[in-house]
Write a sequence for this structure.
């Protein structure tokens, strides 16, 4: 029997495709399911879908065996919302320079302040980013717009650029043909490749600067340990498109007569993987970082200097009424509908989630189960404490630590994360279902949207926290 198509109504999903996909897999003979599981695992390992642990040993990253799928209207809405947030983020450097309150909410190390004082040129530049928004949404829900919540923006060092297109290709190659045997109208395609998003951002910046050449450097330290290795793959991909591109260590760049060089090759635009704090530490240790400093000062580095504001407390700027005048009506609308209430942990009064005046620490203590405490600038899911999952005493200690370490911790409304059933297939092909928490990573440029799907049975969803990768595809 051929399954009818429940798929579209005006570009939005009509029903939960996840349930449909799981049902389709139940129709597949166990021997074929076992072969499918093996093929996906083997292809992922062969193509480098691995995570390097702290001992620099590769660990296979699980690839979940069904995709998440969105419709055209949903894709358009997410792209517009993320671009709106990106435009708002571009205002933060100027705001930080003129507002003492903003500097309190977005604290920087002394070395970062020195670099910004030296390199930032107010009014003479526009800010651009290549980063990743992390969000949760439930595409299959009638209230999917309301369910869409952004957790943070990673304006630097955004992982997933190689993983996304590779996992999409693996799922389209192995899984989707099996599903289409039972649902021939299931026509899926990938969303945009994050590397094409990056290329568009770099090219737009080169055009804005009126550069007459387009030699690109992807700058990441070559002695890093742990994480996901993507830069070599990305260099090869951009070269395959005819772009003159090199993976460089920022310490390998040199400045000569106002020009940036990698060896004897002139470099025009740089994508940087590192915060100013990292670079300034290397400079303090004696390394020559004059070339990348020149790139930052002249707008030839992506992300530009506003990328330093990777703080979770950015959402406090966006959700505090004191800063409303700095943002457009559209930006404020996105803040209201799609950002969790967020405050840096400190003694004193502020506005609560409903706009009421509250004494922050006592209020947070009384509403523990509705809140999460996060390190302001950490990544990889480290240090996150869900109030409902820890004791009153542990939460109290976390608040005390936050007060004692100004600017280092935030308290945030705990918004629901989409929970979905995913197929789990054993070596014999037996099929079961397991519930996973799922999140999205959004890479955006003016024209493109790329989507990274992650899932975990833990509420903190991150590959570094033993999560897996979910292909996010678009329904034709």
């Amino acid at each position: 029997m051929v399954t009818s198509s429940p798929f579209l109504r005006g570009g939005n999903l009509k029903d939960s495709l996840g349930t449909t996909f799981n049902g389709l897999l139940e129709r597949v003979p166990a021997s074929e399911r076992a072969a499918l599981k093996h093929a996906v695992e083997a292809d992922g390992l062969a193509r480098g879908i691995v995570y390097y642990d702290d001992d620099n040993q590769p660990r296979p990253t699980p690839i979940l065996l069904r995709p998440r799928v969105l419709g055209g209207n949903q894709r358009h809405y997410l792209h517009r919302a993320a671009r709106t947030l990106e435009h708002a983020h571009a205002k933060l450097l100027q705001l930080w320079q003129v507002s003492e309150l903003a500097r309190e909410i977005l604290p920087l190390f002394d070395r970062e302040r020195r670099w910004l004082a030296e390199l930032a040129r107010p009014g003479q530049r526009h800010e651009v980013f290549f980063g990743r928004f992390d969000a949760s949404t439930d595409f299959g829900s009638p209230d999917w717009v309301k369910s869409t919540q952004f957790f943070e923006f990673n304006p630097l060092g955004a992982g997933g650029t190689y993983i996304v297109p590779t996992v999409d290709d693996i799922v389209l190659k192995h899984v989707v043909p099996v599903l289409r045997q039972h649902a021939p109208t299931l026509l899926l395609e990938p969303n945009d490749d994050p590397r094409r998003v990056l290329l568009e951002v770099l090219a737009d910046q080169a055009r804005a600067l009126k550069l007459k050449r387009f030699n690109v450097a992807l700058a990441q330290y070559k002695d890093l340990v742990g994480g996901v290795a993507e830069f070599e793959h990305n260099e090869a991909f951009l070269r395959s498109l005819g772009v003159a591109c090199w993976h460089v260590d920022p310490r390998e760049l040199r400045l000569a007569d106002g020009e940036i060089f990698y060896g004897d090759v002139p470099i025009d635009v740089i994508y940087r993987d590192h915060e100013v704090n990292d670079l300034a530490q290397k400079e303090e240790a004696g390394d020559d970082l004059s070339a990348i400093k020149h790139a930052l000062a002249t707008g030839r580095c992506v992300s530009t200097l506003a990328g330093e504001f990777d703080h979770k407390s950015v959402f406090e700027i966006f959700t505090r009424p004191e800063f409303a005048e700095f943002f457009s009506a559209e930006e404020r609308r996105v803040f209201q509908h799609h950002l969790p209430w967020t405050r840096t942990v400190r003694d004193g009064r502020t506005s609560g989630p409903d706009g009421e005046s509250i004494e922050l620490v006592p209020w947070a203590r009384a509403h523990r189960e509705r809140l999460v405490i996060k390190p302001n600038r950490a990544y990889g899911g480290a240090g996150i404490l869900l109030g409902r999952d820890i004791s009153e005493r542990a939460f109290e200690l976390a608040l005390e630590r936050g007060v004692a370490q100004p600017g280092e911790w935030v308290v945030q409304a705990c918004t629901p994360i989409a929970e979905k059933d995913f197929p789990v297939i054993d070596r014999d092909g037996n099929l079961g279902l397991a519930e996973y928490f799922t999140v999205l990573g959004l890479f955006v440029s003016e024209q493109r949207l790329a989507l990274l799907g992650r899932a975990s049975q833990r509420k903190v969803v991150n590959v570094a926290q033993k999560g897996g990768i979910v292909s996010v595809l678009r329904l034709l």
